[in-house]
Amino acid sequence: MRLLIVGPQGAGKGTQAELLTKAVGIPHVSTGDLFRANISGNTPLGQKVKAIMDAGQLVPDEVTQDMLVDRLAQPDAEVGFLLDGFPRNISQASWLEGVLAERGTPIKCVLLVDAPDEVLRERMTARGRSDDTPESIDRRLAIYHAETSPLIEFYGEKVARIDGVGEIHEVQERIRKAIDALD
């Protein structure tokens, strides 16, 4: 089962991805985790990412894509995976579709976990992180709506819309029902 989870920050994607991957036995492939693992492992890609981030720049798509290709080639991802944090825009999604098509392993379902912006703002503010200022939250939501939301149209019928409002177990139940409906 090859899945993609998308949605704005604060929607609970990471929490839901962890629960789901444990339940269905596929790896949770988070680009943020890939960056951290490569940096802490001092891999050649990790050294490149660290230098870029230390310079205050965004990691180029090619570097992220190299890490992703390497991760998806690992044995535990043969049975499937849940991608989290990639793709974030149409260009990345087109690249990913091409890579997966070459392997004959297309994305089966895109889980769109969403909530109203007011709820997302409340959740992110409640986390108490230093980078969760009202201005930065609004900026991240604006970027999501401008760059990531178009993925919904890109993936079309593969998208399962999940209401991200409610208790963690309620949202997980909605996700599981959406996946069960695929079979």
UniProtKB/TrEMBL annotation:
Its EC number is 2.7.4.3. InterPro entries: Adenylat/UMP-CMP_kin (IPR000850), Adenylat_kinase_CS (IPR033690), P-loop_NTPase (IPR027417). Pathway: Purine metabolism; AMP biosynthesis via salvage pathway; AMP from ADP: step 1/1. One of its GO terms (molecular function) is AMP kinase activity. It catalyses: AMP + ATP = 2 ADP. AMP binds at T31, R36, Q57, L58, V59, G85, F86, P87, R88, Q92, R129, R140. One of its GO terms (cellular component) is cytoplasm. Keywords: ATP-binding, Cytoplasm, Kinase, Nucleotide biosynthesis, Nucleotide-binding, Transferase. Consists of three domains, a large central CORE domain and two small peripheral domains, NMPbind and LID, which undergo movements during catalysis. The LID domain closes over the site of phosphoryl transfer upon ATP binding. Assembling and dissambling the active center during each catalytic cycle provides an effective means to prevent ATP hydrolysis. Belongs to the adenylate kinase family. PANTHER family: NUCLEOTIDE KINASE. HAMAP family: Adenylate_kinase_Adk. Monomer. This is Adenylate kinase. It comes from Nakamurella alba.
